[in-house]
Amino acid sequence: MATFKIRPAAVEDCEEIFRMSEELNIDEKLPGSSEYVTVESLKQGGFGDEKFFHAIVVETIEPADGLPKKNTEEESTNQNCSTDNSTLPDSLVEKAANQRSRLLGYATYSFCFGTYGPGRVLFLQDIYVEKEHRRKDIGKALFIELAKIALSKRCQEVNWHAFSWNSGAVEFYKKLRATNATTKINLHSFFMDYKDISRLVTESKEADQ
Prior knowledge:
about 20% strand, about 35% helix
């Protein structure tokens, strides 16, 4: 049975993160990536000199055919999650390289500062788990890892958005005891795309002339 672990993303993960982000866009009925979201822009934005986001990934590890798996005490209590690779007898350590590993989920986040009260805030942009691996507590494990990161950075809040029609996600967040800001404090979310940003700047320049 495959095990999984959560770890910080590496630049080599960007192709898989891009693939999963495309799947997330389909799930959320979004048009998909643009010229601004590519494997290369992920590498630059997450691992370049000017970092715009951080990421963690869920990696599954499956023993290769014919490679016996060590039955540890940890596995007897949790068949789904593993934080290390100690699933093989010591005599077969060299064969561990034959294990198949792939990414099955990810989360991207950044930090901001809320002067309205919380101060340091971790903002969760994307969280995704492949469909065939859902309802296995992997999404919850991702949130727990994000919570640990937030606490390590002395954040007072973790914020994110969700579509109102995505009832499955909304119910999942309720089970985490997250607060729905729209119903609790009547908070609405706004955005300006590149066209709107450019228009605003252009209009301000014209007004100054």
